[in-house]
Amino acid sequence: MKKISITLFILSWVFVGYSQTAYPTSFAEYQRNFPRLNDILRKKEDSLRRQFNEKGLSWPAKYIYLRSFKYDSQLEVWVKNEKNQPFQLFKTYKVCAMAGTLGPKRMEGDYQVPEGFYYINEFNPRSVYHLSLGLNYPNASDRFLSDAIQPGGDIYIHGSCVTTGCIPITDSQIEELYVLATYAKSSGQDFIPVHIYPVRFDVKKSADYLGKYVRDFADYAHLANSMKEVFYYFEKYKKLPVIMVNNRGSYVLDQEVKNALPSAEKKSLPVPVLKKKRHVAAFDESEIPTTVHKLPEFPGGADAFKQYLRDLNNKLSTYLNEEQHTAYILVEFIVNNKGKVLNPRIIRGGNDLLNEHLLDALEIMPDWLPAVREGKLVPMKLKQTIVVEKTGEKG
């Protein structure tokens, strides 16, 4: 049996001006040292106590759990007072601004809100966005899968209703949430979990939107499926599963979590396209001249190349997504000094399945007539836009 190497989440804790190992009194009392926050705590405590009483909940909550849904613009607050109790929904806040699209954060400056499983690792009472609660992005999974040099950071739940990749709510809402988190931390909840989902999986409109998105970005399907499994597990049991990360950066869930997925949901997201490991020919690109006297030529000339592209369209049009009528795919390849086509790659466009079949076709493209410079045959790198459209839909 193949052994799977598992990497546990590396847990750490950061406070603004507060050490985990040096409690002067309770964490809530420490927060009162900030004059503005002391006023907020006093003001919000009475309101929160009243809201808890109205919902039949015990104040203050010793454990809280946050769920955010990007497409649905929601932030849920779940609470409980005993470790083995199920969570109860306290409130749903409206996320009042959004940056980026569905999908995880993978690099600094991509304006993406992360997706996955996080926890609060910072309380910032001096935030320029009124108040803020920091998240431990990049987490153990992100450190495998995000940009190794600049994965980005400084992801917060905050006030002020503006964002470039965080989760913004109103000032009044962040005051409530900050107080709830403060009391949970003060009661001993060191790691307040925050799960960030692309959509509410139980809302058809949202799930359909995610399904269409995943068809264009099939590499995202594995993460989306893992998040869906955790979502439905929590929906069924109102408790959180153990979530681990393997040595490829993927989330690892036990069979109980997978079994909680409703049967109707088990095949709702497409399986990722299996991408071939393609041969890359050794080639010194410094040998490619900046100018030539004659460009490479497809065998038979321009008319033959147009026919080749028409035939290619007929073969590839069936791989367009349901909602795609036309795909403009920018490809790049080298024609060496013997006319061989080397190292084709997709620069942009298409979808994963379409691109795989296009690369298959480009790898067996017939030999070209090489470029010519000063009477000598020389290599040349070409870029070509290949248009694939559904039959009968030409303008």
How would you summarize what this structure contains?
The chain is an alpha+beta fold. It contains nine helices and 16 strands.
Number of strands: 16
- How many strands, what sense, and barrel or not for the largest sheet? 8 strands, mixed
Give, in spatial order, the strands making up the sheet with the most strands. Answer: 4-3-2-9-5-6-7-8
Shape: elongated
Mean pLDDT: 88
Task: Report on this structure.
With 395 residues, this protein is α+β, with helices and mostly antiparallel strands. The protein contains nine helices and 16 strands. The strands form four sheets. It has an eight-stranded mixed beta sheet with strand order 4-3-2-9-5-6-7-8, with helices on both faces. A hairpin with a 7-residue loop joins strand 5 and strand 6. Helix 2 packs across helix 4. The N and C termini lie far apart (56 Å).
